[in-house]
Amino acid sequence: MDTLQHQSLQSHATQPQNIPVETVHVIHMACPITPASIQQLHNCTLLALQEGAQRLELRISSLGGCLASGFAAYGLLRSLPVPVRTHNNGNVESAAVVIYLAGSERTAATHSRFVIHPLNWGTGNGSVDHNRIVEWADSLNFDRDRYRTIFDEATDGAQIPIDILKHLNQEAIIIGPADAESAGITTRTVAADTHKLPFHNVRHLWISGF
How many CB atoms lie within 10 A of CB 206? Predict the structure, then answer.
């Protein structure tokens, strides 16, 4: 997080603004999923609640990243005491799909897409022993299973269900908004010109990813 933004969040956290009761808090996230960006998401959501938010909207476009951070964000959004709407601004891929599925209402722009692919683990350049390799394999299998559980719970009752396990194990899938709606990933598709950013009674918060 840059210094200016960090100071801004700190000052708002200690001195909440006088926000109208009906104000919508919109969080903009256009960055990779990392521990730093998810910490900023925590900051933004807690700030919104401190300001009396009645509902949140997360506008996300991300190519994915750290899966552990994605699961942490999912748990955070699902635990909030206010309704959360997630909106795919352009690309929601890999770990970002897990975060997107946390929304009780999930919309997508007309020309957006979703990407789901097999999970991977970065090993770096150091040497490892057999036990560590087994641990990595077990971790990947565990994350695959909880990704599948979250996906299946969110898309239960879909018109055309997706075999998520196939795409987490074997081959990637790219899903457009129409197919995403049929698969239960989104609740509806909205055209960009009918889903303009509001200017009145809205509080915009942002996540830089740094």
Answer: 16
Short-list 112, 101, 92, CA closest to 187:
101
Q: Which fold has domain 24-207?
A: 2-enoyl-CoA Hydratase; Chain A, domain 1 (3.90.226)
The residues with which 107 forms a beta bridge, in sequence order, are 87, 188
Q: What is the pLDDT of residues 68-122, one digit of tens each?
A: 999 999 999 999 999 999 999 999 999 999 999 999 999 999 999 999 999 987 7
Q: Report pTM.
A: 0.85
Distances (CA, A) of 140 to 71, 121, 143, 169: 13, 7, 5, 10
Tokens of 138: 């077990």
Angle at which helices 3-14 and 35-50 cross, to 10°: 30
**Which mean pLDDT values do the consecutive 10-residue runs of the chain (210 residues) have?**
37 45 85 96 95 93 96 97 95 98 96 94 73 88 96 96 95 96 93 62 83
- Residue spans of the domains in the chain: they are 24-207
**Token couple for 189:** 């598709």
**Nearest Cα residue to 121 out of 142, 99, 138, 136:** 136
